[in-house]
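Methods — Computational structure assignment.
A single polypeptide chain was analysed. Its primary sequence is given first, followed by the predicted tertiary structure written as structure tokens.
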Amino acid sequence: MMDNPPHHSGGDFCLDGEQLKLANGGPTLTYCGIGVFSPSFFADVPAGAAMKLRPLLDAAIPRGIVTGERHSGRWVDVGTPERLAALDQELS
């Protein structure tokens, strides 16, 4: 979890200590896409199925089985060709 970047100012989740919580109007953070998951987390996903992670997280968070921590180092979301090009330019 990290501070919300300008392109995702609404964030994704809240942290209560290390416990991940659904956004409830309080301060939010953005999921950085880094995670360690037990294979059992994906037990209900059919083999070979493609699906988004967010619905699985949304279902698991109320059960109290998802933890997180705040990352305060540098992180760059290169999720679009434009952001990737901007980072490439910066690093060149």
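Note: The chain has a mean pLDDT of 93.
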